[in-house]
Amino acid sequence: MIAFLEQLRPHHEELRKRLLVSALAVAVCTGLAWLFIEQLAAFALHPLLAHTQPGKLVYTRLTDAFISYLKLALLCGITASFPFLLYQAWMFAAPGLLAHEKRLARRIIFWSGGLFLAGALFAFFIVLPRALAFFMSYSGENLQPMLKLNLYLAFAARMVLALAVSFEIPFLMVMAAAAGLVQHGHFRRKRKFFYIAIVVLAFLLAAGDLTATVLLALPLFGLYEAGIIAVRVFVRATV
Fold first, then answer.
1. Which of 48, 57, 51, 46 minimizes the C-alpha distance to 147?
2. Best CA proximity match to 186, nearest among 227, 237, 223
């Protein structure tokens, strides 16, 4: 037992080193983001201000604005350091991988990172402005919105992250089929069950708002169908 633990010690030391370096990278990027927090906040508010007329955003507690800016800086810090975090994970795992496994891991990191970025951009520049315009359309002479800064940032971050992660769905479906975890027709046969799971997930991400649930679920349905087509095309082409 002692000998086994001694064999694991170098891996523990390496893991601790990678985690410390990763935490330092996040802290540095978060600190840099805080230096430009006003510009970042203006950028985060752009989808709301460019397509609607909400007036000024408000905060009702003294700490709300500070906490919201701090969360925004941390989110930007994690996003900016994400490629470096992937690199650290790669450097920890690479020594134990064979040559073909390294090529596969690089391919997975490339495609998953690209799809995550594409989903975030799609959510921020296309889905979020339309969702905000829809929700703000209920305002009128007798109904004036008074949006809180922290709630808007939480809503925007939740929608962007949800679609960014959701863009991984076709990739994960292809990987599961290619690895033999499921048969080619599994996702087509189990479509209704996955649709139910998508609706539940969208409902949870939308915090129970039915309209937001629909706006989130529809792109997820499309991504799921795209994954079925991708499995049919790419997996059979490599078998």
1. 57
2. 227
